[in-house]
Design goal:
The complex is a heterodimer of chains A (about 525) and B (about 350). Chain A has about 525 residues and is α/β, with parallel strands linked by helices. Chain A has 18 helices and 23 strands. With about 350 residues, chain B is mainly alpha-helical. Classes of the chains: A alpha/beta (about 525), B mainly alpha (about 350).
């Protein structure tokens, strides 16, 4: 029997919650979208008081499953069972009222409202005149924060909060619904190390209260740190569920990709050439100060530091997005002024930005248009006309070389997976034949297979004599790929380590001070 | 038939993509509307709507001014902007251009010493004044970052004011025959089509076009890719202004006079033609071919109502509905694409 969400919600409110082995489960789920089977006979079982990770490459079906559990999609076949009862969720609100809350990667808060207003929206406490009782609302929020060990003023406007704090608000909101199930989609992707620790603390607390947590991540270390169990998906199919204490990292990778990945970081010793980029006392007032470093041809300089340490700002300033307030930049020994990305490109610099969607992809345009946009600044144009045929040939060759998975180059980039989008954007910059390449989180949110490929491209570029600056929050990536690692903390360089001396502990010490 | 589809499937396997051009569906809408008129014509008026070359010429003649403006507006909308000033710019440039196109035989010439000038002078001044108005729009939007809606709204009001101030509300008449010639016969249509072809090519095959789409698709990404967004927007708005100026010249020549009230609401017709033609107000999507068809749809609709002797009030009501319907269809299409 399928129980309607409203009945279920009512049963829940009455406190007569039936006991079941699984808090939330899905059986035989199938979901098709025009042209693709996103999920095929998939199962998922979440136990009370556990953290259950969903693993899989991009496009494996994790997101679709999660959206089904959260009531955003309805499955074509199969059942969702809440505490053993079949339930048909029609909307996210349905899910929320049945104790299933989802915390999206793109946080859904209203920036011009206060923290408290965001949490209690639709359920604001009212005074006897029917107006919103702000005092009561703030008090309830403060109490909720105390319970979760969050230090935040309920009356702050959300737009003034950091990403981490916004996430805390979302979690608090979910908890305020007395949710039994919390679905988190890559919650740590924009958090600093310290914030991650705090988040994990909160997750631990929630778990001990019996809440079940569905946790989606691409990060292996997190899996071992936080998850009790995990389920692996590949190409829309369910591969298996295991306790995370039973397996090794390699086991999981094998399950995810269905093949062995021999080497994650194919670091190759390449001859290091002359200094290509020399930065002295570069300063962007109020953001970072006195940043000085050199990068040589063929060298990969890793740039580590917590989010907010100024890493990305340095990259943006080097590329002219936010021109420096003081300091000098020299390319091949010649001092240059970089006041816009256009100038940077003319000096043969390239910049793969951190946020694919916001500053990278031209989402509604096709692969070809996305790939050719930067090189058109000074090549493949005659009297204003684009040398279409020639350029298309070059783009086709590039996409073959980068192994972009697509039927053809007229596909819109928004239809590609994250990894393939990233490859197209890398292609965009490679077409300009840069001598200085800045990569900001080149593999964030990308599946293992594509990640390894991107690492290989970067290594090849270094071999060809490109000077590479690579920013990454993933320690193994920075340590594995870099010849030297520059660490930043609160807008200042706290150290530059050689490959030999760069260890996780050393970098963390410099990053956290 | 089956062989045909098999061949199609095979060619699709080898060389897939190349979906049907989006203009095709708009063109089918145009055909559909025309056929409806044709049928209603036989039933209610007892004559054919389409089998009348004269009527078809008039339809295109009537909308060619709107079409010239719409070509500029399309480019603005592709960047994600909007231009509300074009109607007023038509009025303003009509006044300026006419004041320099007066014949010496006219007793009340505005500049008695500047009569019988070669036709190139008023035309160049008209386009130039439009270009300047668009340039100011562009600079305002690019430098102060105010929304295009507000910048061009300001220009819309001011330009209308300037057209009234210029002659203190008096019309400018007595134009030279050479100037009036621009507005006679098929010339407005020729100008419209030449303009459309030029900018169709510009949008599809030049760097200018690629950058225009890129800015509309994602202005941040466009900037990081090295596009000088500010300079490019100034170009786009200046071109839109120049085309509105050209439309002003044609309007004055067709009427053989200029009045401060010329071009009122033209900006809305131009935006409507653009949107009906498939250009998305969200930016990044749109083609001149679609806009041309959209313009003709507007013309056919108006002329068809007149042909069926439908009251002018109903015409406006239905026109409004069709504009909204076009955008609803666009929104629906985008939703379907995302799902």
């Amino acid at each position: 029997m399928v129980i309607s969400p409203t009945t279920m919600a009512a049963v829940r409110a009455s406190g007569a919650i039936p006991n079941a082995e699984y808090l939330l489960s899905a059986e035989g789920i199938r979901k098709e979208f025009p042209g693709v089977v996103a999920l095929d006979d998939v199962q998922f079982r979440l136990k009370r008081g556990t953290v259950h990770a969903l693993m899989g490459e991009n496009g494996a079906g994790k997101s679709t499953l999660m959206k089904i559990l959260a009531g955003i999609y309805t499955p074509d076949e199969g059942d969702v069972l809440l505490k053993g009862q079949k339930i048909r969720l029609q909307s996210p609100l349905d899910a929320l009222e049945n104790g299933i809350a989802m915390i999206h990667q793109e946080l859904n808060l209203m920036p011009f409202m206060t923290v408290a207003e965001n949490i209690w929206i639709r359920r604001e406490p009212k005074n006897r005149f029917g107006f919103v009782d702000h005092g009561e609302m703030n008090r309830k929020t403060a109490e909720l924060f105390r319970r979760l060990n969050i230090a935040m003023d309920p009356q702050t406007q959300v737009r003034d909060l950091s990403v981490a704090n916004r996430q805390m608000v979302e979690i608090a909101k979910a908890v305020s619904y007395e949710s039994d199930v919390l679905i988190m989609d890559e919650p740590t992707s924009a958090l600093t190390e310290r914030e991650v620790t705090h988040l994990f603390q909160i997750i631990h607390d929630l778990r001990s209260q019996g809440i079940g947590i569905v946790y989606i991540t691409h990060k292996m270390n997190e899996l071992f740190e936080i998850a009790d169990e995990f389920s692996v998906f590949r190409d829309g199919k369910y591969i298996g569920t295991h306790a995370s204490s039973d397996v090794t990292r390699d086991d999981i990778i094998r399950m995810m990709v269905g093949r062995e990945i021999t080497q994650m970081f194919p670091k190759e010793e390449v001859p290091i050439g002359d200094v290509v980029l020399s930065v002295k006392n570069l300063t962007l007032k109020g953001v970072f100060h006195d940043v000085s470093f050199d990068v040589r041809a063929g060298e990969i300089l890793g740039l580590a530091g917590l989010v907010g340490s100024g890493r990305s700002n340095v990259a943006e300033t080097l590329f002219g997005v936010t021109p420096a307030t003081s300091g000098t930049i020299a390319i091949n020994g010649e001092e240059v002024t970089i006041d816009s990305p256009n100038t940077a490109i003319r000096h043969r610099m390239a910049f793969l930005t951190e946020d694919r969607k916001d500053t990278g992809c031209l989402l509604i345009l096709d692969i070809l248009e996305n790939m050719q946009i930067a090189v058109l600044q000074d090549k493949f144009v005659r009297n204003g006309f684009v040398a279409e045929g020639e350029l298309t040939g070059v783009c086709e060759e590039m996409s073959r070389k980068l192994r972009v998975k697509t039927p053809n180059l007229h596909e819109r980039i928004e239809n590609l997976s994250g990894g393939n989008q990233q490859k197209v954007l890398i292609g965009r910059w490679l077409l300009t034949h840069p001598r200085i390449l800045i990569l900001d989180e080149p593999t964030r949110g990308i599946d293992v297979g594509a990640k390894a490929e991107i690492h290989r491209f970067v290594t090849e570029l270094a071999r060809d004599g490109v000077a590479v600056i690579m920013i990454s929050s993933e320690m193994p990536e920075v340590l594995g790929m870099s010849d030297r690692v520059m660490v930043m903390h609160e807008g200042r360089v706290t150290g530059i380590l050689d490959r030999a001396e760069a260890t996780q502990v050393k970098v963390m010490e410099l990053a956290a001070q | 038939m089956s062989m045909n589809s098999a061949a199609q499937a095979q060619s699709a396997a080898q060389k897939p993509a190349r979906r049907l051009p989006p203009e095709l569906s708009i063109f089918l809408v145009l055909i559909g509307i025309a056929l409806v008129y044709e049928i209603l014509g036989w039933i209610f008026v007892g004559q054919s709507f389409l089998m009348n070359p004269q009527r078809l010429t008039i339809i295109i003649l009537q909308v060619s001014v709107i079409g010239i403006i719409a070509v500029g507006v399309t480019q603005v909308i592709i960047t994600g902007g909007i231009d509300l000033s074009s109607g007023s710019v038509v009025g303003m440039t009509a006044m300026f251009t006419a004041s320099l196109a007066q014949a010496s035989t006219w007793p009340r010439a505005l500049y008695p010493s500047l009569t019988d000038l070669p036709v190139i002078v008023p035309v160049a001044v008209g386009i130039g004044v439009g270009l300047l108005a668009g340039y100011i729009n562009g600079q305002l939007i690019a430098r102060t970052k105010i929304p295009p809606f507000i910048a061009t709204l300001g220009m819309m009001v001011s330009a209308r004011g300037i057209s009234k101030w210029y002659t203190k509300g008096q019309p400018v008449s007595g134009l030279t025959d050479q100037f009036n010639f621009i507005g006679t016969g098929i010339w407005p249509v020729v100008i419209f089509l030449v303009v459309a072809v030029i900018f169709h090519i510009a949008l599809r095959y030049t760097r200018y076009g690629k950058f225009t789409y890129a800015i509309g698709a994602n202005v941040q990404a466009a900037r990081v890719s090295g596009i000088n967004v500010e300079a490019h927007l100034v170009k786009v708005y200046a071109i839109a202004g120049a085309l509105a100026g050209l439309a002003g010249v044609v309007t004055a020549a067709r009427a053989q006079t200029a009045q401060a009230g010329m071009g009122v609401m033209y900006e809305l017709d131009a935006i409507a033609a653009t949107v009906i033609g498939g250009t998305s107000l969200a930016g990044g999507v749109g083609r001149i071919t679609g806009t041309v068809i959209g313009t003709v749809i507007l013309g056919v609709m108006t002329s068809g109502f007149t042909f069926l002797r439908v009251d002018a009030f109903y015409q406006e009501i239905v026109k409004g509905v069709i504009i909204v319907a076009a955008v609803v269809v666009d929104v629906y299409r985008q939703k379907k694409r995302k799902a």
